[in-house]
Every structure is written in C-alpha cells, then in structure tokens.
Model the fold of this input.
Amino acid sequence: MLLIKLRGFASNFSRKDAEAQNNINCIFVVKFPAIHYFYRMTEENLKILSFFENIEKYYGCKTEITEGLYSLQESFDNHSTTWNLSEFTLIRSGYRKSGGRMMMEGEKMYFEISAALIVSFKQTGRNSFEFIEKYGESVFRITKIRFHYRY
Done:
C-alpha cells in the first residue's frame, strides 16, 4: 500500500503518478491543520484529479453551475430539489487547504466543492461534469458544471 502526503491539491501526486505506478488502489492523505482526510485513490478520484489538473483550459470560458440541494428519501427527485443557477467567466481555480475545498472563481463569483464530501463524480458531456456531495445523513448537494469551450 502506498501512502502519500499532499500539501495542497495534487501538489506531490497526480493521476499520472498513480498510472505510472500501476497502483490505482493506493491511499493518499491530504494534511490540513490538525485534521487528515483519507481518500482511496479509486478510478473516480483519479477522474476528479484529472478534472482539476486540466481545468485551466477552461479559463476565460463562460461557465454555468447548476446547484441543487436535496434530501434523499427513497430516490432523487428533480421536483423536490432546490435549484440555483450561476453563470460567470472562469478566471481561476485552486484548492483551499483550510477546510479541503476545491474552488472556482469568476468576476464577483466564487464557488467551492468540498473534497472530503464528494460521493460521486462523472463527466456528463464533452465539457460538462457532475459532482454529488453528502452533507448529512440524508442531505446532498448536486453540482452540474458546464463550460462553453470553443475547442
């Protein structure tokens, strides 16, 4: 088993490192003040790393974020979800070590996703992605990101 400490998002470890070691099931640790978040380096987590390693190509692009809050009872239902829509031009992105948040920023717009709370990530289209975070026993946030990318 491989144990790697990171100081920031993917600063010492990347998807390429895991592939080079043929060890997709390794564990890595992200160290924050007095707290360690443990993540399994699953194929899904490698996709999340890849997303943020390559997000710079979307800088300057119109970005749509559709965010929904819902309580899982039996199944996800669009009609019982509270939705928000934001549009901005992506200026920069980063990782906030304090609290373990992945950030995207535009002019007068700031959006964060909790790295520790992600339970699902998928690419839903060529330039579209979906994160699901679990904030409580039955409280979830679904975030759909669409980049209007020219290429």
